[in-house]
Amino acid sequence: MEEVPERMARITSSLSMDDLADCDLIIEAVFEDMGVKKEIFTKLDSVCKQGAILATNTSALDINEIASVTKRPEDVIGLHFFSPANVMKLLEIVRAAKTSDTVIATSMDLAKKIGKVAALVGVCPGFVGNRILYARGLPAQQLVKQGAMPWDVDAAFNAFGFRMGPFQMSDLAGLDIGWKPGAKTANPLRDMICERTDRRGQKSGAGYYDYDEQRNGSPSEEVAAIVKEFAEQSGLPQRTVTQEEIIEECVFPMINEGARILEEGMAQRASDIDVVWLNGYGWPADKGGPMYLCDHVGADRVLKVVERVSEAVPSIIVSDLLRKKAADGSKFTS
User: Fold this and answer.
1) Is 296 part of the annotated catalytic residue set?
2) Amino acid 39: pLDDT
3) Which residue in the list 55, 56, 78, 80 is annotated as catalytic?
4) Among 79, 170, 301, 326, which lies 20 to 30 A Cα-Cα from 34?
5) Measured between alpha carbons, how far is residue 183 from residues 187, 191, 270 in Å?
6) pTM for the complete prediction?
7) Domain check: are 252 and 174 in the same one?
8) Residue 100: exposed, middle, or buried by beta-carbon count in 10 A (0-12, 13-18, 19+)?
9) Residues 218 and 251 in one domain
10) What tens digit of pLDDT does each residue of 62-81 get?
């Protein structure tokens, strides 16, 4: 406790960007709005000294577009800290098209100095971590359309080794993140819940689950009724799914998306993808990461499931690299 005053004394606050003029590294962490971020980087470009690293903490936005408003795109990079940043080890270091090697090397060194696990990735929607997370959410929604309850899906993920499943994670983050009243988004069930109720997740005491004062969740009868209506509106045949089927149909598309990321060069190696998911998303350590899991269960088995799921979810594009691995028996981690 005696260190608290000393450490707090190292923190200086200011309401003026001009006070950043002599800083070596500036990390922008405002909300995910491209217009606001470009306005900030335009100002930083005019204020900060030459050679300063201008970093953005964006989790999904195009860093090339952010860098384009500066006269020094070679100094712009993504430093995506995972929340809560004081706990999570992962730091996605996102190299933009014109980011210099010096800035990348300095950022990697910074990660080591502050005790983070760094993964170098490229610019694409969601980068590596959130792009694969999105690939998990699509089949999870499909299962709900076919009669599974959110807590059924989460229970399968919990049994697999995740501390939180997709719907538990949504409740923790807040159901209103990404939701706009009256708008249609890629998450129609969430939209229905938010439109009809005040359920916004743990923070409001109710989301997909009902929560007590200690934030312990339990299945909600209100949500169950909405889910059943949602499933009926989909017009899809209803089915009963096992936990193994839930994991295969949600996790194997994640592997497929990881393969697409490797095809595009957005990650340098399969192990980088595993590092992201082990250190940023609570992937169970005994399962080794999505790409390691593929090598364990076999690419041919993964491909068969992904091809079947992609018929129901057209936005899942089957990876040519995954097809190749299935055909020749080679492994991602070799």
Assistant:
1) no
2) 98
3) 80
4) 170
5) 11, 8, 37
6) 0.92
7) no
8) middle
9) no
10) 999 999 999 999 999 999 99
